[in-house]
What we know:
The chain has eleven helices and ten strands. A hairpin with a 2-residue loop joins strand 7 and strand 8. The chain has two domains: 2-116 and 301-316, ATPase, nucleotide binding domain (Nucleotidyltransferase, domain 5, 2-Layer Sandwich), CATH 3.30.420.40; 128-299, ATPase, nucleotide binding domain (Nucleotidyltransferase, domain 5), CATH 3.30.420.40. Helix 5 (162-172) runs parallel beside helix 7 (212-228), helix 5 (162-172) packs antiparallel against helix 8 and helix 8 (234-260) packs parallel to helix 9. The radius of gyration is 20 Å and the shape is globular. It is of the alpha/beta class. Helices cover 46% and strands 19% of the residues.
Amino acid sequence: MIILSIETSCDETAAAVTRGGREILSSELFSQADMHALYGGVVPEIASRNHAAIIGRLAEMALKNAGVAKNEIEAVAVTYAPGLIGALLVGVNFAKGLAMALGVPLIPVHHIRGHIAANYIAYPELEPPFLCTIVSGGNSLIVDVRGYTDIHIIGRSRDDAAGECFDKAARVLGLGYPGGPALDKMSQGGDESLFMLPRPAIEGHPYDMSFSGLKTAVVNVVHNTQQKGESLDKPSLAAAIAAAVSDILVPRVMAAAAEFGREKIAIAGGVAANSRIRADFLKAAEREGRTLFIPPLRLCGDNAAMIGCQGYYEYLDGARAGMDLNAYATMDV
């Protein structure tokens, strides 16, 4: 089955053509990062306008590079939740028009389910059940993937997402936007033991997380150093931030895997690209004898191929949307 998929949940416009759920025929991405860097973060109105300007040409490019004609498309998949509402609406409305024009089914796909599905593309042998943690700029979740469309939340952040913590920390350190990759690069060679940062826990909810206090602690360290006129060891602070986020994530995921009896563990989302987090998960999985699946860097961030992959399994499960499909800023997975 050949699916044309659309992803516009935040500041990256993406279109892809996939076959059979796990084969990428083409995957196109237009990043707006440079535009939003001027403002230190994503400006929703700018994101929406740029999606509208580029989505048509990007879809045409995806078809051309896949070597697929429009009449060969068997379904259109689109991210409809969660994300920036204006950005989502651009993708949803474009996909509705495309599905109507081609006379093919429209498949609604949850963005988080798409991130999980990135692992299916990277690892053809991976099948549910398995445990997965999704860590990105807007979400931090631990979920039990019981089936391709049967996903249950075990733990989640009560406030900020891990990616948001990285971005805000990078901003106060003067690293600009997007902050995650810059913070990761700066942390190399730093001494994490020079800074004591919090690892919050929520009583009675062992798998829930909190990153707001960590973000505030980093801001306070930077401001206090500036007020005292002292120099700041930025690489060491960056290393301490990565260590703290990893210490919040890894033990919870491994404990959940043990409790739920999952031998397979997957990581997904943009924060899965962080070198410290990847290394710590690899060590923990090896230590506990579990199989770890981490997508390559190109599939960690937002992309349309993952939407096409999950769209295939949603289609098999009977998911269809009409021309009344709406977008939603928030929605449980």
